[in-house]
Amino acid sequence: MLMASPDKRIRKNRHFYQALKHALDGLKAVTRHEGNFRRELLAALIVIAAGWGFNVTRFDWVLLVVAICLVFLFELANTIVEELVDLVVGPHYDPRAKLIKDMAAGAVLLAAIIAIACGVYVFGPFVWQLLQGGR
Ligand SMILES: Nc1ncnc2c1ncn2[C@@H]1O[C@H](COP(=O)(O)OP(=O)(O)OP(=O)(O)O)[C@@H](O)[C@H]1O
Question: Where exactly are the structural domains of the chain?
Fold first, then answer.
């Protein structure tokens, strides 16, 4: 279960900075408590470093950034679904809870497959060239 920030206010945000702080609190919580999110952050940093190293084209950068954002957004949505299901169902087995969580995990899996396909499209030719050069 994720831990909320200690701020106990439940009324509407009074100004933009308050809304921004709460949004950042949410991102901080998911980064601190979700191992998958941290692993994806590390993978994103490696992909960005590889993009730099191989000096990929602007189009390739767009593909990589969209792929990275896609995975982060789906992982965030999956975490929200898990938290909501746990809030409603609690520590009990419920076949609908299982279905909902499995579908949310399936959505992350699809996003990850799309991201991997983008990675193979961008880096595949470089890796192929390296392998050819090594022979
Ligand atoms: N209340 C429940 N009733 C039935 N099945 C559940 C319930 N909670 C979780 N499950 C099953 O256990 C799996 C893991 O659920 P859990 O909430 O622990 O996700 P998780 O392992 O933290 O996922 P992630 O790795 O994406 O964070 C779910 O995909 C689902 O199949």
Answer: 16-134
Which residue type occupies 34?
A: E
Catalytic residue among 34, 75, 82, 83: 75
Alpha carbon of 37 to ligand 1 centroid (Å):
16
State which amino acid sits at residue 40: E
In Å, how far are 6, 19, 34, 64, 108 from 71, measured between CA atoms? 28, 24, 14, 11, 7
Q: Which CATH number is 16-134 given? A: 1.10.287.3610
pLDDT digits (tens, 9 = 90+) for 123-134: 999 999 988 886
Q: pTM of this prediction?
A: 0.87
Model confidence over 70-106: pLDDT tens digits? 999 999 999 999 999 999 999 999 999 999 999 999 9
